Amino acid sequence: MNRWRENGVKSAARYRLLNRGPKKKLGTRLLFLLSSKMAASRFRSLSEENIAQLLNDKDSENTKKSTKQHRLIFESYLKEKNIRNPTTAVELAAVLRKFYAEARKKDGQMYSKNSLCSIRFSLCRHFKQELNVDIIKDVEFNEANRVYGAQCVELKKQGLAKTEHKPPIADEDIEKLYRCGIFNTENPSTLQNKVFFEIMLFFCRRGRQNLRQLKKTDFEIKVNSQGKRCVVKTNDELTKNHREHDVQAEEGGMMIANDSPFCPVSSFEKYLSVLNPMNEFLFQRPKSSGKGEVWYDNMVVGENTLGKKMKVISQQAELSTTYTNHSIRATTITILDRSGFEARHIMSVSGHRNESSIKSYSKTDENTKTNMAGSLMAVIDKKSDTEKVVAFEASKMTEMRNLDCLQIPKRNLF
Q1: What number of H helices and E strands is found in the chain?
Q2: Helices 188-202 & 309-317, crossing angle to 10 degrees?
Q3: Cβ neighbours of residue 211 under 8 Å, at least 6 residues apart?
Q4: 3-class state of residue 231 by DSSP
Q5: Could you give the CA distance from residue 54 to residue 308 in angstroms, rounded to a whole number?
Q6: Residue 135: CB partners within 8 Å, gap ≥ 6?
Q7: d(C-alpha 346, C-alpha 332), whole Å
Q8: In sequence order, what E strands does 79-194 have?
Q9: In Å, what is the CA distance from 328 to each residue of 7, 52, 304?
């Protein structure tokens, strides 16, 4: 009866009405009433604003930022050309046909091929929402897309199609990182440096994506089927390539313990033990020294600080060049490819959707290029040595002929 009092007078009256009659039907009526009440409250009612917000939250912040930026470029083009905003697919196709060929940066320079491609994809997202059209697939935009393709060819001719990927970290620089003290596990800042680097390396993480949101509970230390201690991820997360329509979550990599003094699992375990128990996040602000049981403040490291962390580490360790967070991801893919792992296995760690994306990372490293150049030089040097011998023999014969002319005894000279 307490439940009916909470629901008000009408519900109580309904309860008395339904329970009139033989007591044997009381249970049936109560069951019917409860099931009706549950059915009435099972589904939540959402307003159009709620649904619009749900759709808006589907895309990442970077995607929304990119879409807005490129939409403003298109609107600036319309304003400069004195063209009214298109409201139909036919009007939009006519505008895009010229826009693809005439789009320029603020300084008047042409966009690179990749930039023009990004603008096109952003406009596609925008007009799907605004006009319910697909500027890439719909037949009304075939002519505009042919112009886009021709412009991409032109950009390639002018050298504007090259993609600059972040370089992988050289083997010598990786060795220097572990030897110079920047990964010292007895100091809060350097211990965090080591854990940060190894999480990025072993789990092949992108730049600054979700770093600030990582929590201690996102990872766990366990024993695998081979009896080795390892660190694995426990939670799936939204990433650049994994948002909707995913049948399987992104697997990611793992850390494996070993007997090395640089064991990543031991460092991670120590790091967890000295984190601030009042804070749930993984990357907390380090204290000045490793004294006491807690080495970190009850404060999360900022997104910008985490985003520039590898750059700062590079400068502090005086590496051969300044690397970025994404360089660590490129290093993981390069090492795995160089070690002979299949692309499908690398993709399970990196989260890429197709093998062509892996190939863009799998470049010939500087050491291999040096060895290749050395092999070519060896042939040149060998040829040069042969030419030297031939030249020496020729000069010797010439000198002997000259001596014959002078009638000087050869034995006195040789």
Answers
A1: 17, 5
A2: 120
A3: 205, 283, 303, 306, 307
A4: strand
A5: 31
A6: 92, 93, 96, 120, 123, 124, 127, 141, 144, 145
A7: 9
A8: none
A9: 59, 37, 17
Q: For residue 220, give every residue at least 6 positions away whose Cβ sits within 8 Å of its Cβ, in sequence order, or none.
A: 231, 232, 234
Contact 201, 255 (CB under 8 A): no
Residues in the chain with pLDDT values less than 50: 1-9, 11-12, 15, 17-18, 22-24, 240-243, 245, 247-250, 406, 408, 410-414
> What kind and span of H or E run contains 114?
helix 113-130
* Per-residue CA distances from 58 to 52, 80, 103, 131, 351 (Å): 10, 33, 29, 19, 19
CA distance 95 to 104: 15
Residues 136 and 120: their CA atoms lie apart, in Å, by 8
- pTM for the model: 0.65
pLDDT at residue 144 in the model = 96
| Cα–Cα distance, 235 to 51 (Å, whole number) | 26
Cβ contact 202:190 at 8 Å:
no
Look up residue 286 and give its DSSP letter. E
Q: Give 3-state DSSP helix, strand, coil % of the chain, rounded to 5.
A: 60, 5, 35
Alpha helix ranges (H) inside 297-365: 303-307, 309-317, 325-338, 343-350, 355-361
Instruction: Give the model's pLDDT for residue 264.
Output: 95
Confidence at residue 42, expressed as pLDDT on a 0 to 100 scale: 74
What is the predicted pLDDT for the residue at 242? 47
Query: What is the structure's pLDDT at 37?
Result: 54
The pLDDT, as a whole number, for residue 38 is 54
pLDDT tens readout for residues 39-73: 556 777 888 888 777 777 777 777 888 999 999 99
